[in-house]
Structures are given as structure tokens and as C-alpha cells.
Amino acid sequence: MAGSTREVVTLQFGHYANFVGTHWWNVQESSFCYDKSASSRPSEINHDVLFREGLTLTGEQTYTPRLVLFDLKGSLNTLKEDGTLYDILDKDDEVHWMGDVTLHTSETTGKNQFLKDLERIDKGEFPTEEDASSAGTEDSHDEVQEGTAHSSTSPLEVFGTKLYNLDGSVSVWSDFLRIHLHPRTVSILSEYTHDPEQDTFDVFGFGQQLLGTQKVSADLEDRLHFFVEDCDSLQGFQVLADPYNGFGGLAAQALEQMSEDYDNKGILTFGCFPPVYVRRSPIVDCYRLICTVLSVTKLSACSSLYTPLSVATGVGLEPGPTVAFPYLTYNPLLHYHTGGILAAALDTCTLPYRTRSNAVLMTDLTDNLNYSGRKVASLSARLPFPITQDGSLSASLSQFVPAPDLVSLCPGMRKPGRTYMQSVVLRGVPPNRICIPDPTTHADSIFRDCRSANECLKCYLQRVYPGTLNAGTVVNDPLTVTTPFPHLFCSEITHDGLVGLKPRSAIQGVESVPVMTSLCSPSGLQDSLTKLHREVEKLDIRRFHRYLDAGLEEDDFAETVESLRRLARTYQSNDDQMAEDDTDDDDD
Questions:
Q1: Rounded mean pLDDT of 10-23?
Q2: Which pLDDT score, from 0 to 100, does residue 35 have?
Q3: Are the C-beta atoms of 469 and 461 separated by less than 8 Å?
Q4: I want to staple 362 with a disulfide (CB 3.0 to 4.6 A). Which of 115, 266, 418, 521 is the partner?
């Protein structure tokens, strides 16, 4: 591990957060270069920031995420809780009862073709040309089309021969998990069962109560300390959480303790909201709203920065319609699809503290964004960033100068308004697609003198956001979207992520794409937070007995609602403040 590496430990709380996280870890692993001699240039991404080296009991080297994740009983399907890297026999789990035993079993769905192939690769049994020609019989629903088979034994090339369609065979996040997890990573809360139709773990206080038990508290502390003590120079924590159910309470309680134990470390938290909920009724929606409000206030208070994420446009009682990306087609009902979109944006926006050179500290990033108490941020993305096969970065950016059109992944924010500060990341632009091919025909372009992607991005940000504190990062590495990333890209996108001049072949998938993201602190967040406040202040918490039974006091809830109102006011622009003052004067 390089001496300059500043490590980050990641925590994931909840089933949808684990969908997003699984995609995130998969896209990182799919970009690993196992054959150093085969790479023309080293990756600019320092994977040691999020991954750790280790050894199995047989001395084999491993590379796994510094990750602790929580989920409910029944959420793993075929995945073992302690993984498959280490054959550990915990003698404490042996049964010594000599009397009659009644065995209760729960059915699990069998492995899909992707997991079967992954298992064979782990055993050194690589698919052959005969496998490629015979696939599509028993498990044909997992295959879209077979490409040209390779004789290479590289796992990346093996997966490159098949285009898996996992839309119908993914029910839980472990159904498409590509990487190995450390035995200290997965913690299953056996007190509750994963059941989207019942969702009994739907109260914020339930999560708080769980972490208040010795069992869960000691388990988290043990797992967290293992990964923290393994770090040479820990810079902070990434947190993904489901803020709309009991996992919001579990995460908030954990972060409250972490903010005290690691007060000089950064905590960057992302709240992951699915666009569609299985359970919908007026009372269920109110329970979800209360959870969301408690999570927003408490997670933002205990984090260096909190960013809500969703492809839904609404927040609170009604999720609303989903956002549209020009070159994506996705099913909002599938966590497998929407989680992939959020993971693509997350992997890109976190690159500033994960690069090998000129990396910033997580705390530097969050401190700039949370200025004046603005502890909530917004994330927007262009996925993919559109560059035509005969075009250039300069030409593409020129289209967006009059009207920037990044797609907002912040639920409830209608318009960004004024942007106080932003961290913009542009990745994956081909070196031969930066400059305008014929500058003489674009003499009036603001990019006519730009000779690098960095210069283009800097020029763009200065022109479009002149009053904003802009931080731009350019990374050459594109986002890798090979198996098991879902097939979301339209046929206009080529295999290397450019906008093609003709449709892509049906037997060819997209392997990588350029992406642009903006993690920012805009005044438009006032609308999102104010909408939440207006909805929740209408509720009488005394009607929701399960919240009161879980320990929520009426006074504490009233203080939470007031905290949300104050948080919303921190995003007021001067124009908004003047308008509000005028309204107050009229009332007088």
C-alpha cells in the first residue's frame, strides 16, 4: 500500500442501500487490472483507499472492501454471512442440545447463471467455447446474447463473452454481487425479517432500540474497530443508509457515536430512497414521512455532509415521477436498475479523495460544501456524458453553456437555484476527443484555446457558474459498466460510451462510459426541505402509537420539526430572504 494512501471505511445500512453499494463495489472491481503488463497506463484511481489486502487461511492474497453492512434476516439468498474467502468454523455456533430438535428452513432462490459462472471462475473452471454455444437452455432467462468466446482465463474477459440479463433473476442485492466480502463485513439483524410487502422494520425508533442492545452494539463496535485499526491513515467514513425505515434510526444512532469517537474524521453520508415503494397507504406513507424527517435532521447533524439520493423527483408523502436520462432506459420498479444509476453517480462524485495524485481530503470536500451550516448537499449527473464519435468534449460542453442540464438525483428539488459551492467531476473523456477538430470554424467558442480536459472544464465552470466556488476534477478512467451492471444504455451508445453514428449491435454491450457529476450546495434545497417541513408539521405524532411505543417523545419530535425548518432556512438566497421580509412587512 502506498504511503500516501488515506483510507476510508464504508458502512451500509439497509436493503436498498445495499443494492446501491453492491453496484458501487462491482463497478470498482470490474476496473481492476490483474495483469499489470497488459495495461498501457496505470489507473488514476487509488483503490487502496476503499479496499484492503489480506490473506486467506491457505495463504492466498485477497482484496476486499473496508466495509460493514447491515441487513435483515432473509436478505442474503445464497450468500453466506461470513463470505466464502475464509472457511471459519465458529465453535460457539455448534449445537450441543441432546434432545429432540425441530428444524425450520426457509426457501432460497437458486443461483442465477451469473453467480454460477462466477463460482466456476473462483474454482478455476473457466467457461469454454462449448459453454458459450450451449448456454441459453436451462438458464436462458439470464442471457441476452452470446458474443465471441475467448480462450483467455482472465475473469474480465470471461464475463466479456456473455451479456447477462439479470432483470428477472435479481431479488436481493447478493444475487449480483461480483466481489468477495470479508467475514467481518456482513451483519444480519435476526430480530426482523426482510419482507417488502410487510416491512415490519418501518419505525425509526426500532433501529435506535436495536443499537441500544448489547448484542448489536458490540457487534458494530467489533466490526468497525477491525477495519479502522487496519488503516494506517484513516481519513473518514462513507455511509449509505435507507432513511425511510428503521435503518435510518440504526444509522443515526451509529453515526452519533462515531462522531464522538472519531471527531476529527470526515463522515460523508448518502440517504438512498427507492423511487417506488411496495407498501402504499395513507398511514404507511405517514410512517415513512416521519422516518425521513427524523433521518434528515439526525443524519445531517451527525455527518460532515448528508446527501439524499433517488431517481424519484418527489420527497415525503408522494415520491412522484422518476427522472429521465437522454440515453438511458430503466425500470423504476427494479432496485437492480435504479441502484446502478445511483452507484454510477456515487463512484464518480467520490473520486476527488480517491485518486493517486492531487487527491483532496474528504474533510476538505465536506467542509467547503457545509459552510454556514448547510449540512445537506445535492448530487446531479450526466450518465453518460454525451460525446459523439465525430465530436469533442469542447463541442459537447458548448451545448450546455446556455442551459446546464445535469439530471438531479436529489428528491424534491425542482430547480437548483443559486449554487453556493460545487465539486464537479468529469471522467472518461478519450484523449483524442478533447479539442475542437477545426478551431477556425469555432473562432467564437470559449473553448477555442483549451488543449486539455482540465482547461475545458475550468473554462466551462467559470462561464456557467461565475459566482460559485467551483472545484473541478478530471479523471481519465471511465466508469466501467460491464457485467453485472444492468443493460440501461440506449442503442445509440457505443461499447466505449460515445454517442454513435449508428445503432450498436444487439450482441454487443456497453463496457465503459464517460460521466459528469456535480456535488453541490444549492439554494434549491430550500424547496425540498421546506416541502418536508410543511407535510410533517401537519401530523399529530400522538396518532402514531408505534413511534411513541418505540421511545419517541412528543417534545423531541417537535424539536425535530423545528430543526428541519431551521435547516431549510440556511439555503435561502438573498432574493428569497428579501421576498420573505417583504411578506412579513405586508402582514404587519
A1: 98
A2: 62
A3: no
A4: 266
| CA separation, residue 132 to residues 118, 141, 155, 178, 415 (Å) | 14, 15, 15, 20, 49
Residue partners of 462: CB distance under 8 A and separation at least 6? 470
Backbone angles phi, psi at 161, to 5 degrees: -85, -10
Which secondary-structure segment (H or E) carries 587? Answer: helix 574-587
Separation between Cα atoms, residue 420 and residue 92, nearest integer Å: 55
Cis before 384? omega within 30: yes
383: left (phi over 0), alpha (psi -120 to 50) or beta: beta
CB 62 within 8 A of CB 56: yes
- Assigned C-alpha cell, 433: 476527443
Task: Output the average pLDDT for the chain.
Answer: 86
The radius of gyration of the chain's CA atoms, rounded to the nearest angstrom, is: 24
Answer whether 468's CB lies under 8 Å from 422's CB: yes
Q: Among the residues of 419-473, which ranges form H helices?
A: 453-464
What does the CA dihedral 273, 276, 282, 287 come to, rounded to 10 degrees? Answer: -20
pLDDT at 140 over 50: no
pLDDT digits (tens, 9 = 90+) for 71-95: 999 889 888 887 666 654 444 444 4
All three cell numbers of 488: 440501461
Question: Directed axis angle between helix 15-29 and helix 335-349, to 10°?
Answer: 60
The DSSP letter of residue 48 is G
Q: Which three cell numbers stand for residue 506?
A: 444487439
DSSP structural state of residue 360: P
CB 402 within 8 A of CB 48: no
Q: What are the CA-CA distances from residue 466 to residues 136, 521, 522 (Å)?
A: 55, 15, 14
Pairwise CA distance, residues 311 & 334, whole Å: 12
Question: 447-482 b/e with 16+ CB inside 10 Å = b?
Answer: beebeebebbbbbbbeebbeebebbbbbbebbbbbb
User: What is the rounded CA–CA span in Å between residue 431 and residue 456?
Assistant: 12
Instruction: Report pLDDT digits (tens) over 201-214.
Output: 999 999 999 999 99
What's the grid cell of residue 17? 442501500
Q: What is the DSSP string of 154-176?
A: -HHHHHHTEEE--TTT-SSGGGG
Which among 15, 27, 165, 1 has a CA at the least distance from the CA of 480?
A: 27
Q: Cell 494506517 maps to which residue?
A: 232
Q: Which burial class, exposed, middle or buried, applies to 282 when counting CB atoms under 10 A from its CB (0-12, 13-18, 19+)?
A: exposed
DSSP one-letter code for 142: G
- Cell 459537447 belongs to 396
Alpha carbon dihedral 189, 190, 191, 194, in 10-degree steps, equals 80
Pairing mode of beta strands 61-65, 51-55: antiparallel
Half-sphere exposure of 584 (CA within 13 A, CB side): 6
With contact defined as beta carbons under 8 Å apart, do 219 and 185 qualify?
A: no
Q: Is 91 exposed, middle or buried (0-12, 13-18, 19+ CB in 10 A)?
A: exposed
